[in-house]
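Hi R.,

As promised on Friday, here is the backbone we talked about, encoded as structure tokens. Could you run it through your design pipeline when you get a chance and send me back a sequence?
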């Protein structure tokens, strides 16, 4: 449970840092929040990994959530474009992360495909 709280914090801080980066274009003082947001986000991601979440799952959720939340909030805060194609992209990103998450659970339970499957051309024996 702790790993999910750390991950949520890491996502929130990364999104805050990224939005502050956009705001720093107009007001350079926002750069302080950029540095703090990214630094603390990476610190929390390291705690997520220390708690045992696989890196592919942690990074996938962190990145997908960051992209989606940043785009949505940038549209709200800065008037950035938000189109149905972008919405479709968010859905594809989320689907991909869900597949990685499901795959990690399969690997934990031992239901993985064999790693050493070789297909020899006929007559190669």
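Update: got your reply. Pasting your designed sequence below so it's all in one thread:
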């Amino acid at each position: 449970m702790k790993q999910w709280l750390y991950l949520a914090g890491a996502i929130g801080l990364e999104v805050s840092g990224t939005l502050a980066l956009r705001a720093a274009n107009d007001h350079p003082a926002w750069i302080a929040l950029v540095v703090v947001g990214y630094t603390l986000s990476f610190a929390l991601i390291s705690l997520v990994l220390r708690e045992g979440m696989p890196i592919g799952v942690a990074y996938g959720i962190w990145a997908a959530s960051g992209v989606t939340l940043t785009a949505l909030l940038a549209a709200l805060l800065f008037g950035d474009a938000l189109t149905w194609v972008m919405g479709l992209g968010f859905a594809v990103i989320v689907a991909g992360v869900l597949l990685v998450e499901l795959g990690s659970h399969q690997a934990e339970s031992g239901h993985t495909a064999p790693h050493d499957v070789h297909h020899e051309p006929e007559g190669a024996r």
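One thing I noticed while checking it: The chain has four helices and no strands.

Thanks again,
M.
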